[in-house]
Amino acid sequence: STFAGSESLVRYDTNDYSVPVRSAHHQTTIKASVSSIEVYQQEKLIAVHNRCWDRECQIFEPMHYLELLERKPGALDHARPLEGWQLPDCFNAYRKLLETHREKGTKEYIQILLLLNKYSVAQISRAINKALDYRIYSYDALLQFLLSSEDYAFTTFNLAGREHLRHIVVDETDISSYSSLIDGGYHAKRA
User: Fold this and answer.
1) Count of helices and strands (H, E) across the chain
2) 8 CB neighbour count, 10 Å cutoff
């Protein structure tokens, strides 16, 4: 049992292992095996690392620090936990284009990195490559490329549990009726 420090690190043996920044200054429990280190907070698994057998090392998981970058975007290039983080080349290319074309491009790039909490690197890479093909540089556009057909299922109205609505019939709209509105509106303005 130990506390996570202000740098979101817990110490086991002689090494420090990262935990999510929201767990800093909280009581944690470390479960160590020959190959891994698991960190728990109130019985919830919050971090898993390969065990390091060297001495005085700091082992970082970049995902643990992305939340902090949202508040401190200037640290993106200098954050020690992100050093050596290997992402596909399209990420860096998209970041440069965002920063060139958007006023808050760095913040939007950090939002894209935060999507790694929900989507895989491969899914985001595909979305970035699609956005690059279309020359679209924004977080919102990229998010649209990530939406899958399952996401759209939540926006479809379902009659399950609403049997009383099955008897309602909506007439098909005759679009020619809109022409009379346009004509009426035009003539009314001229008169």
Assistant:
1) 7, 7
2) 25
Look at the block and give the residue holding tokens 């907070």. 41
Q: Which two tokens stand for residue 126?
A: 């595909």
Q: Which long-range contacts (CB under 8 A, 24 or more apart) does 83-89 make?
A: 87/121, 88/121, 88/125, 88/128
Answer yes or no: are the C-beta atoms of 65 and 56 closer than 8 Å. no
Q: Torsion-angle region of residue 55: left (phi > 0), alpha (psi -120 to 50) or beta?
A: beta
pLDDT of residue 149: 46
Structure tokens of 132? 């690059």
- Report the alpha-carbon distance of residue 15 to residue 52 in Å, rounded: 7
- Half-sphere exposure of residue 110, counting CA atoms within 13 Å on the CB side? 19
C-beta atoms surrounding 12 within 10 Å: 17
Cα angle: 142, vertex 139, 115; to 5 degrees:
80
Look-up: residue for tokens 């060297």? 54
Structure tokens at 137: 């540089």
Contact yes or no for 58/97 (Cβ under 8 A):
no
Over the stretch 27-66, which tens digit does the pLDDT of each residue have?
999 999 999 999 999 999 999 999 999 999 999 999 999 9
